[in-house]
Amino acid sequence: MKSVYVTCLIGILSLSSSVAFAFDADKVPEKKRTTLGLYLGVKEAYDMTQKEKVLFVDVRTREEVNFLGMPTTADANIPYMEIDPMYTWNDKSQSFKLLPNSEFETLVASRIEAKGLNKNSPIILMCRSGDRSALAANLLAKAGYTKVYSVVDGFEGDMSKEGLRNVNGWKNSGLPWSYQLAKAKMSVE
Predict the structure, then answer these.
(1) What is the pLDDT, as a whole number, of residue 158?
(2) What's 179's domain CATH number?
(3) What is the 3-state secondary structure (H, E, C) of the chain?
(4) Range(s) of the domain holding residue 171
(5) What's the whole-number mean pLDDT along residues 44-71?
(6) Does the residue 179 lie in any domain?
(7) Stretch 52-60: mean pLDDT, rounded?
(8) C-alpha 158: how far from chain center
(9) Within a domain: residue 174?
(10) Interior CA angle at 161 toward 30 and 95, to 5°?
């Protein structure tokens, strides 16, 4: 009888740990919403990396990671989008055009396998401010991944009225990050 009680308690605790990491979906702006509806704030994402076996992927471009730093707890930088190698200008965004990374899904699958995880394991995706990570989460959901979380406030966070990214985000929350990059975490040849 005691072993049944312990087994039930362990089951309840493991279920509750997943539920504890749930950003309020009603507060997620439309452009940051995903088909799976799984969201984390930066502190929730950090806590999840400390308590569960997850794959934590920074989906920003190599340029962003190179010049702005990266969370030290991230397992990899796998860009979801890359700067157009022809440096085509995008008038709408007032920046260089971004193109989809055709190898994104393959590179994620490789990291999942290397970490001993599978398509039902938790994956955390983070970009600059939560837009691209949502798109990347949708791509992985379409590929059959079932627990893909998007970090809503991203690495740098949302913009203030002054046009600065200082509202929220990983860096602004005092979570561990560094300009020092580890080659093993980068998508390099």
Answers:
(1) 85
(2) 3.40.250.10
(3) CHHHHHHHHHHHHHHHHHHHCCCCHHHCCHHHCCCCCCEECHHHHHHHHHHCCCEEEECCCHHHHHHHCEECCCCEECCCEEECCCCCEECCCCEECEEECCCHHHHHHHHHHHCCCCCCCCEEEECCCCHHHHHHHHHHHHCCCCCEEEECCCCCCCCCCCCCCCCCCCHHHCCCEECCCCHHHECCC
(4) 22-185
(5) 97
(6) yes
(7) 98
(8) 15
(9) yes
(10) 70
pTM comes to: 0.86
The whole-number pLDDT of residue 21 equals 53
Q: Partners of 99 in the beta sheet?
A: 82
Locate 118 and state its tokens: 């599978």
Distant-in-sequence, close-in-space partners of 173: CB < 8 Å, separation ≥ 6: 42, 43
pLDDT digits (tens, 9 = 90+) for 100-153: 999 999 999 999 999 999 999 999 999 999 999 999 999 999 999 999 999 999
